[in-house]
Every structure is written in C-alpha cells, then in structure tokens.
Write a structure and sequence with these properties.
With 249 residues, chain A is α/β, with parallel strands linked by helices. Chain A has ten helices and ten strands. In chain A, a hairpin with a 2-residue loop joins strand 1 and strand 2. The radius of gyration of chain A is 18 Å and the shape is globular. Chain B is mainly α. The longest helix of chain B is centred in the middle third of the chain and has 40 residues. Chain B is globular and about 65 Å long. The termini of chain B are far apart. Classes of the chains: A alpha/beta (249), B mainly alpha (260).
C-alpha cells in the first residue's frame, strides 16, 4: 500500500520539469514534497492520478503502474485516490453539497439518503456543516480549500494528494487546514502526499520530507533529518536564504 | 531577397499546418465524443438541462431575428416585383428564402454566437480552473460529462429553434404583406404553396442539424483546449464564434451543392 515514483521525467515544449524524480509515500504516512514555485511539484502529483503521462519513468500506486492502465482501469484506481486541488477546483455550477456528492454518485452504490448523510459527515469533518446549499462563489478562500478536502475524502480514499493546501491563506486558516490534514491521517488512516512551499505548514504535517530541486529528488528524510541536513540547497530553502541556493548552484 | 519572397509561402505553410493539426484534434475529440456515448449514466441526466440552455434560452434571439427578416423580405420582394411580377410571388420568395436559406443560416449564426460562445467560455473556464481535471479525479469521463450532452442538445434543439424561426419569419412576412402591401391572405398563401416542396423542410432541418453539431463540437473543442487564464478563455470564446460562423457558411454552400 504505497505510492512509488521511479525515475520520473517530464518536459513541456522542450522545457524539462522532471528529470528523474524518485520518491515513495509509505502506507499511512504523510509525505511532504517541498520545492520552489515551478519546480514540478504539481506536475508530479498529476502523474499519480494519471492526469499527465510521463515521458519516461513510472508511478506505481499499490503496485499498479499508472501509465500502463487503460482508461477504465484508471477510473478504478482514481477511486482510491482523493485529490485536493490548489484552488479547490469546485464546480461552480452546483452547490457545495452537490460538489461533495459528485464522487459518491459515480463511485458508490449508495442511495440518495446515504449520500446526503455522507456529505453532511464530510462537511462536518471540515467544519463546514450547514454550508451544503451554498454556491462555491459564496465561500472564502479557506472555506473553499476545506470544501475541496471534503469532496476528496467523501469516497473514503486510501490516498489523499494535497496540492498547495495552505497557499494564500491567513495563519489561522493555515493552522486549521494543517489540523485537518493530520486528522485525515490519524482518524481515516489515509496515506497523504502534500506538496507545498509553506515551511511552517510542512513541519506541522510531515512524517517524512522529500525535496524536489531541478527535476530531481534532492533530499529525503524525517523532519529531524531535514533540520540537521548540511545540504545548502535544502537549508537555503527551509530557512529562506537565497544566498545558500545561489552558492550551491 | 529570396528570404523576403519566400516569407509569404512559409507563413502560408505554417498556417496550413496549424489548420490541419486543429482539424485533426477536433476530429479526435469528435471521435471520443462518439465513443463516450456509451456512458449513458453520465450524460443522460444532463441532457434535458442542456437542451433548455441551448434551445429554450435561444428562442427569443432566434425569433427576434426571424421576425425582422420576414418583414424585410416581404417589403423587398414587393419593391422588386411591383409592376413586373404578380405580387403573390412575395409569398414564394418569403417562404422559399426563409426555409432554404435565411431561417437556418441566420438562426445558426445567432446560435453560434450565443451557444458556441457559451460552451467555449464555460468549458474554457473549467479547464483553466482545473475543474475538468477534478472531474477526471472523481472518475467522470469529461467528454461524456461535458461534451456529449452539449452536442446532443445542440443536434436536437437547433432544428427545433430553426423551425420556429422559419414559422415566425413567414408569419411576419404574411402580416407585413396583408398590412402594408395590399395583398390578401389568399394571395400570400397561394404564393407560399406555389413552389413548396416537402423537401424544403427536410433541407432546412438537415442544415440546422449539421449547424448544431458543428457549433457544439467547435465550442467544446476550443473550450477543452483553452490554456492560460482569463485571456485564454477570451481567445477560445472568440475563436469558437469566428470558426463556427465560417463553418456554417461553408456548410451552407456544401448542402446547396450536394442536395439542391
């Protein structure tokens, strides 16, 4: 029960984004992938659910190579994976409750009443109970992020992928989202991959870290190991010291 | 010197390549739309709301255009025919022109602006805000969820709206004839039925169906392939309207050559 990324390569219009990235998210842990803006973190995450196809290398989810799956098999795999988008990607033509129910209507045999109960449960879990009838446009940035998490967890996935879950939020809302990620791990037992460049948030939620730099994995280790590392690139990033990064390159 | 002379040919070559690539990608999306028809559970419940948006919501603009087209046709026919051709030919001209040409084409052009632009803008916004990716992650085939209901709704509703527009255009021509041209209803109806063939209606509906298919697939194509943010959505919307308007005129000529 793990997500394994092996020798992942991806380029867009000749610009190399991933150049042999490798990392593994183990069963039950929350792996935080750090990296600067444009370093390929979101691109990596999209390979995990087959939204992008690698130029070379592969992503394995529960031992299945994602890029080898046929379309129908890919839909089966996606039922195991919840994806929290950077800007929530809520469907603005429907209410919040319908957004959360979307996956359930497609992926489960639940009847209408069971779906309504699950939607309420998920909204309660992200502290949005009573918000079901609202339109996404009526929600604040933090509420939208939490709604995105509610939609991702509605089908009880084994894996949760978070794309910049705290970017652009105020400190209090960031802390709330972090607590939510921890609860998903402790209460629902999901394996999580969080991609972020928010260091405070990363240290709050991470069981393990990986750092993506120039398309490759620059560092992998525990929070203690990343604090003690001598790698100037990693130190420069987590301490916010560009001079270390410049000296290293 | 050679470079300057060859530049137009290079530009034309590039343009032709881009056009061929675009047609190829549109063809692939269309083929995928046909394959996605098997996901009936995904698109069926979305079909009626789309039919309302494509058809019912388009009726006012289509009828508005048809109304004034009928009035003008009647007056221009009278202006052209007076003193040379019996006035009941006003009925011939209004009926034939509304059915064979102006009804389907003007409705098609109006709906390419309303429906095609709406589809391209909506899908384009969904693309740039990752809503289409979100559909994928929730195990919905995006083409079955977004494209199929819009294309089917357009194929069904374009002929219905066109038929209404033709009826209103002819009625407007008739009222104009009896109110402003000193014609009787009998004269107008005599002209209307003089050269009428049932095929005229079939021809109009074939054209309208093909226009509906093209406007919807072109709108979906540009929406699906939107890149960037608001600017990208704007580009896609403009292109969808321009290309579908041009395609309507080309198809109009194609049907005239092949069916008349």
């Amino acid at each position: 029960m793990s997500i394994v990324i092996r020798d992942l390569h991806k380029a867009f219009d000749g610009k190399v984004v991933l150049d042999g990235f490798e990392v593994e998210a183990r069963d039950g842990e929350t792996l935080v992938i750090l990296g600067g803006s444009g370093s390929g973190k979101s691109v990596t995450l999209k390979h995990v659910v087959g939204l992008l196809t690698p130029d070379k290398g592969q992503v394995e989810v529960d031992g299945e190579v994602v890029s080898d799956l046929r379309r129908e098999e890919l839909f089966v795999l996606r039922r195991k994976v919840g994806y929290v988008f950077q800007f929530a990607a809520l469907f603005d033509s429907m209410s919040l409750a319908d957004n959360v129910a979307m996956g359930l209507r497609r992926q489960s045999d639940m009847d209408r009443k069971e779906i309504e109960e699950r939607v309420e449960e998920c909204l309660r879990l992200v502290d949005l109970d009573g918000f079901g009838p609202r339109a996404p446009s009526e929600l604040s940035g933090g509420q939208r992020k939490r709604a995105g998490i509610a939609r991702a967890i509605a089908t009880r996935p084994q894996y949760l992928l978070y794309d910049e879950p705290t970017t652009g939020l105020d400190p209090v809302t960031r802390a709330m989202i972090d607590q939510l990620i921890l609860r998903m791990s402790s209460e629902l037992g999901v394996t999580g991959i969080v991609i972020t460049h928010d260091i405070d948030s990363a240290f709050r939620v991470a069981d393990r870290f990986a750092m993506l730099h120039e398309g490759r994995c620059r560092f992998q280790g525990t929070p203690e190991e990343i604090r003690e590392t001598d790698d100037p690139v990693v130190r420069g990033f987590i301490e916010g010291r560009p001079e270390l990064l410049e000296n290293a390159s | 010197m050679t470079r300057i002379l060859s530049q137009p040919f290079i530009s034309m070559g590039r343009g032709a390549t881009l056009l061929a690539a675009g047609i190829g990608r549109w063809g692939m999306l269309t083929a995928e739309t046909v394959r996605a028809l098997r996901h009936v559970d995904v698109w069926l419940r979305l079909l009626v709301p789309q039919m309302a948006r494509v058809g019912v919501d388009s009726v006012p603009i289509a009828l508005f255009i048809a109304l004034f087209t009928g009035i003008v046709l009647s007056l221009q026919a009278s202006y052209t025919f007076t003193g040379a051709i019996p006035l009941y030919f006003v009925g011939v001209l209004v009926g034939k022109t509304m059915m064979l040409e102006l009804g389907p084409v003007l409705t098609g052009l109006a709906l390419s602006g309303r429906v095609g632009a709406n589809i391209a803008a909506e899908l384009g916004t969904m693309r740039v805000t990752e809503q289409i990716d979100a559909l994928e992650t929730l195990a919905y085939p995006p083409v079955a969820y977004l494209v199929v209901p819009r294309v089917l709704a357009s194929i069904i509703m374009f002929p219905i709206v066109t038929a209404l527009a033709i009826a209103v255009g002819i009625a407007a021509g008739w009222i104009t004839a009896i109110q402003l041209l000193d014609m009787s209803t009998a004269e107008f109806v005599n002209g209307l039925t003089l050269f009428f063939l049932p095929f005229d209606v079939t021809y109009a509906l074939i054209k309208a169906t093909s226009f509906g298919f093209m406007v919807a697939t072109i709108g979906c194509f540009f929406g699906f392939h939107t890149r960037g943010g608001a600017e990208g959505v704007g580009h896609s919307t403009t292109r969808a309207v321009v290309v579908s308007s041009m395609v309507i005129l080309v198809l109009d000529a194609f049907w005239a050559v092949t069916l008349l």
